[in-house]
Design brief:
Chain A is mainly beta. Chain A has a single domain, classed as YVTN repeat-like/Quinoprotein amine dehydrogenase (Methylamine Dehydrogenase, Chain H, 7 Propeller), CATH 2.130.10.10. Chain B has 104 residues and is an alpha+beta fold. Chain B has one domain: Roll (Ubiquitin-like (UB roll)). Chain B is built from three helices and five strands; from the N terminus they run βαβαββαβ. The longest helix of chain B is centred in the middle third of the chain and has 11 residues. The chains are: A mainly beta (371), B alpha+beta (104). Chains A and B meet through strand 6 of A and helix 1 of B.
């Protein structure tokens, strides 16, 4: 019988939640790496027993752990992330130029075809790759050295490369997103990059043709339709059907289009999920009611999903990497909150249960569907 | 203490003990001068997973929120090639790597 494994990164450690395909009874393992901030844990689609975990600490810096047994045991691997060539600079919050400086790994994206290849999105924004299972890391410097990089500025969370999408139909195509530079696409395995931000509109960026500067919070795609991307921008939910050449807004009837997380149903490329957050100054659900909104039409028309979710006095946030879907027949949706709850739906969002409710603040949620 | 081998005791903070999978103190044999640099070099050689967690990978500068103590003295700002106190080189006092106090 199929089962699922939910990988949860929190402010104070990692947790692994497992269940059979019914997704009703859950076993909780953790904390792994107690006391460390775990920005992200993700498994290889080639070998689901291979996991990568990003540990970060203001005291002790970046550590990377790898598991070859689905998280039962872990071993530290390489944690040296060196920018290659000329370091270059970006804009800081105060408008001055600052040299790029590595701080942490926000996101791992394991290769779709090779168990030992994994990409890392880091702060200050750049893309790294390991081809030896995380033992060593090498920058793909063309993105950080893009001619627009001196104009990039950090978002409130830092200047992070937080989204990496690999195109299953084209091994050379990679999408990334950086707060607050925008989205980028490479069609040559990272050797060169194109900003893909046309059609985005952001307050404070009067030039509608601005190449960069938009605070993209998250991108998502369905593997069967990789030219269609969905974006949760700082404000606005957006869609492209030409691999980012042009974007159009699909916020439609959402109660607010600010938010962080966005994902796509595993079997329905036009079914999209977001968690609207009140505003950029009020990072909690509208009116204290935690609600996932689903569009079955690829955007514009959204329906609220509330069954099983708290509908009063709920003032948590759902961060950008904290939503994921499984690929069971009835698609499962999962998300974690800054209040430490992890919610699951085994019926594509129609109803929700709480897997666990008192973890540290959840930074990331990934799901593995196991045979 | 140049020319001889000293056995130096090092106390790590809890997070780094867990990372290095050690309990209690670490004993390191140091050939030559016993300095911050020689002790930390030996520590990282024995426990490579600690590379980058105490000192920056590239500059080898002490990370901002890490401090060094010995003999009830804060040695954090001492030059890395200064000799450590004789008691550390003699193994009667440990060299302490400490995570700076901060909330959260």
């Amino acid at each position: 019988m199929a089962s699922v494994r939910v990988l949860v990164g929190t402010r104070k450690g990692a947790f692994i939640l497992t269940s059979d395909g019914a997704r009703k009874a859950w076993e909780i393992s953790g904390p792994h790496f107690p006391g460390w901030e775990i920005y992200h844990v993700k498994g290889s689609p080639v070998d689901p027993q291979r996991l990568y975990a990003s540990q970060s600490s203001g005291w002790f810096g970046q550590v990377v752990h790898r598991s070859d047994d689905g998280g039962a045991t872990w071993s530290p691997v390489g944690n040296k992330f060196s920018y290659e060539g000329e370091i270059g600079s970006h804009l800081y919050y105060d408008g001055t130029s600052r040299p790029f400086e590595f701080t942490r790994v926000w996101h791992f994206e394991p290769s779709l075809t090779d168990v030992d290849t994994v990409y890392a999105g880091v702060e200050d924004a750049s893309l790294f790759r390991s081809t030896d299972g995380g033992q060593s890391w090498h920058e793909l410097p063309a993105l950080r050295q893009h001619r627009t990089a001196p104009e990039w500025q950090p978002g409130a969370g830092g200047m992070c490369l937080h989204t990496i999408l690999l195109d299953p139909s084209d091994p050379a195509r990679i999408f990334t997103a950086i707060s607050a530079a925008g989205a980028f696409r490479s069609d040559d395995s990272g050797a060169s990059w194109k900003p893909i931000n046309q059609g985005l509109r952001s307050e404070g960026i009067p030039d509608p043709k601005a190449e960069v500067g938009h605070c993209v919070h998250r991108l998502a795609l369905h593997p069967a339709r990789p030219d269609t991307l969905f974006m949760q921008k700082h404000w606005d939910v957006m869609r492209t059907d030409d691999a980012g050449e042009t974007w159009r807004e699909i916020s439609g009837n959402l109660p607010t289009d600010f938010g962080f997380a966005i994902d796509v149903h595993a079997h329905e490329p036009d079914t999209v999920y977001v968690v609207p957050i009140t505003s950029d100054s009020q990072h909690f659900p509208v009116d204290g009611r935690l609600t996932v909104w689903r569009s079955r039409t690829g955007g514009e028309e959204w329906e609220p999903l509330t069954a099983g979710l708290p509908q009063q006095d709920c003032y948590v946030d759902v961060l950008r990497d904290a939503m994921a879907v499984d690929s069971l027949d009835a698609c499962g949706i999962y998300f974690g909150t800054t209040g430490g709850q992890v919610y699951a739906s085994a019926d594509a969002g129609d109803s929700w249960t709480t897997i666990v409710r008192d973890l540290p603040a959840v930074l990331s949620v990934e799901v593995q569907t196991l045979a | 203490m140049t020319g001889a081998t000293a056995t130096v005791r090092v106390v790590l903070p809890a997070h780094l003990r867990a990372l290095a999978r050690v309990d209690g103190e670490v004993s390191l044999d140091i050939g030559g001068a016993v300095t911050q640099r020689s002790v930390l070099d030996a520590l990282e050689a024995r426990y490579p997973m600690l590379c980058g967690t105490i000192r920056d990978h590239h500059t080898l500068a002490r990370r901002a929120f890490v401090r060094y103590f010995a003999c009830e003295r804060d040695l954090s700002h001492d030059p890395p090639d200064d000799l450590l106190p004789a008691e550390v080189a003699a193994g009667t006092e440990p060299f302490l790597v400490v995570g700076a106090m901060a909330g959260g």
